[in-house]
Amino acid sequence: MSETVSTNEEKKLPLDGRRAIPPNNSNDEENEVPEMEAFGLIPRGFNPRDYLRVEDIYMFKEPHEINKQEHHTDKYYNPKLIVRRGQPFQIQIYFNRPYRPETDRFWLEYLMGRYPQQNKGTYIPIPVDNVLKPGQWGAKIIHRENNSIRLSIMSSSTCIIGKFRLYVAVLTPFGILRTHRNSATDTYILFNPWCQLDAVYLDDEKEREEYVLNDVGVVFHGNVEDIKSRSWSYGQFEENVLDACLFLMDKAELELSGRGNPIKICRVASAVINSRDDNGVIAGSWNNTYDYGVAPSAWTGSVDILLEYYSSKQPVRYGQCWVFAGVFNTFLRCLGIPARLITNYSSAHDNNANLRLDFFLDGEGKVDTRLTKDSVWNYHCWNEAWMTRPDLPVGFGGWQVVDGTPQETSDGMYRCGPASVQAIKHGHVCFQFDAPFVYAEVNSDIFYTKMEKNGTQVIESIDTTHIGQLIVTKEVGGDGMTDITGEYKFREGSDEERLALETAVMYGVKKQSIQDTAYQPQTDVEMDFQAQKAVLGNDFKVTITFRNKSRNSYTATTYLSGNIVFYTGVTKREFKKHSFSAKLEPSSSSSFDIVIKSSEYMSDLLEQASFHFFVTARINETGKILAVQKATILEIPTLRIKTKGELVAGKEMSVIVEFTNPLKQTLENVTLRLEGPGVLRTIKKQFGRIPMNSTLTWEVKCIPMRPGLRKLIASLNSDALRHVYGELNVQIQKP
């Protein structure tokens, strides 16, 4: 009777006329697996207990045992077995009697998802053999003792990534007997950068330790003249983070059969990391109001964001580029894909991808904000993931750009990449995915164009070196910075650079040639602009310097426009206008200082305390215009962190965070966050207000779990002041 019921249920599968079974895109769902699969009618005297029967399976899944040690998965806070593909692991099976190879036959079955199929890699039967072939599924007995056998199991180096269910099947004359469903034997299989046959193989051990196993990183921000850095906790080994990362692939509805391919995983993840068009992980907000959410600058790491999304299934508010990149990096490292976070200083957001950012000037030579649509981000963060690219010609594997920040759509969704860094450098932007967009982010030119009264456009000045001046990432094995500009572009002005540009244009990157337009710049006068380094809340000065290299006397009508901007280069308000006439003597330099008062900028200051200055000067004798723009950032005070008590794993210690308010005003709605992977889970505390010049002290007690070098990261957030960070390296001793 029970059999007929189950076949009726089988018939009720939701068929859509196009496929025999529904899509299999959830790692979480399961199917019922029969414990007795009869071959026909079962004779009356049959007793399953007469045959070989599995009594227990031992998985060697503790962090100190062989599997997690050899597979570099001992850091995951997860009680189940976690191994990497293409590398053998061991399990021990206990039977009800000694195993007799002459007569007994058993095999293993790994299943994933609701509709396991062998040809899709979601149902994997593994017979026991005498030999293991590299990179292919197989199992062999390596030890027999009493009623138990120990197996060495090899997984395929291309198998899908995720959580498999394990069954042991025993053959009897009348049917197959299986172990019952036991979640304790579930096995996670991840990418393996240590395995030469894996698509993500990385051959340098120091790089693997950094790009796969390091759970803390550094985000470089600020601007190219004033580089700032802060730590970010990736936390890819923390409790439930692995499940949250697998859930992202379910959310993106990536077919289980496609989950062995790092190219596909990166592409769908770059869409699901942001909430645009698919209700993904993080909602972006660039407007300085973060009601009903957390300000992007307040996050100290990825764990809170991923776990909140995993439980609520709703986008977490709010993120900006480094938050998208930080969470994306956690996702990639957690699954075993080598990844690093990249910062591109002076990053072009070119709305029509023509390798040219247009800044329009009005009749007087001031920038016209109504007409100017393109923007230069002070910096923009994205990720690189390491993999082979069998879908591209040879030579384009290695680092690939992936970007989870929603900027432009790609194939109808907000996503970007993977795009080969090598292809971007050489201008081969025809190769998928989204290479032209990334090429423009690091290679555009800035055109200053004057709109004449009759509607014609006159190009007054071109800046070919401002965009993509510096591209950096955290150094391997330290907190310093590595300059990787040379991996994205050839030296400015070199023959190779011109050739790469011509190649990119040939492959369809739009570029207007300067020959099409009447452009004769003033070449005998140079203008430079410098801003003094200043602390938030203080006055500072800026200096405009002219060098007249000619034998003529000139006068220059000069305009300075100071704007409070988002780090994306978009203006919130012009807070300073200043114009003056400069007399330029022949063959000499002259400098002019302008003082910026704190009272002029404090009321409207945005969280990253960044300004953007445009300076334009019209040489009255020739009518030509010189133009320069520069971003500058104020110094923001930091948090101080110290510890009290012994720093020993398993013993209580105290962490003390201190902050002194440097502003000439009271800070309202102050929130502190503190976290440290392996030391303490994120803790938040609200403080109502901090009066000017007064100091806040916060003490947190915790019990560190893991010995070794660990990092504590804290952030402070308030209405008037954001992007306040502090960090401390602590050496936790073994008990």
User: How many H/I helical runs?
Assistant: 12
Shape by Cα distribution: elongated
Structural class: mainly beta
Strand content: 35-45%
Q: Could you describe the largest sheet, including whether it forms a barrel? A: 11 strands, mixed
- Counting DSSP E segments of at least 2 residues, the number of strands comes to 40
Q: In CATH, what is the homologous superfamily of the largest domain?
A: Transglutaminase-like
CATH topology of the largest domain: Coagulation Factor XIII, Chain A, domain 2
Cα-based radius of gyration, to the nearest Å: 31 Å
pLDDT averaged over residues: 90
The percentage helix is 10-25%
Low-confidence segments, ≥5 residues, pLDDT <50?
A: 1-14
Number of domains: 4
Q: Per CATH, which architecture of the largest domain?
A: Alpha-Beta Complex
Describe the protein in words.
It is an enzyme of class 2 (transferase). Ca(2+) binds at residues 443, 445, 492, 497. The longest helix has 15 residues, at 321-335. 14% of the residues lie in helices and 39% in strands. The strands form ten sheets. Strands 1, 2, 3, 4, 5, 6, 7, 8, 9, 10 and 11 form an eleven-stranded mixed beta sheet that branches. Strands 22-19-18-16-25-26 form a six-stranded antiparallel beta sheet, sandwiched between helices. It has a four-stranded antiparallel beta sheet with strand order 30-29-32-33, with no helix packed on it. The protein has four domains: 36-190, Immunoglobulin-like; 216-507, Coagulation Factor XIII, Chain A, domain 2; 525-633, Immunoglobulin-like (Sandwich); 640-732, Immunoglobulin-like. By secondary structure, it is mostly beta strands. The chain is elongated.
